[in-house]
Amino acid sequence: MSRPKITVVGGGNVGATCAHWAAARELGDVVLVDIVEGMPQGKALDLMQARPIFGFNVEVIGANDYAAAKDSQVVIITAGIPRKPGMSREDLINTNKNIVSTVTKEIMAQAPEAFLIVVANPLDAMCYVAKKVSGLPRERVMGMAGILDTARYRCFIAMELGVAVEEIQAMVLGGHGDDMVPVVSATNISGVPLTDLLPPERINALVERTRKGGGEIVALLKTGSAYYAPAAAAVQMAEAILKDQRRLAPVSAYLAGEYGLNDLYFGVPVILGGGGVEKILTLELTGEEEAMLEKSAAAVAKTRDDLKM
Question: Which candidate, 104, 82, 76, places its Cα nearest to that of 18?
Answer without folding.
Answer: 76
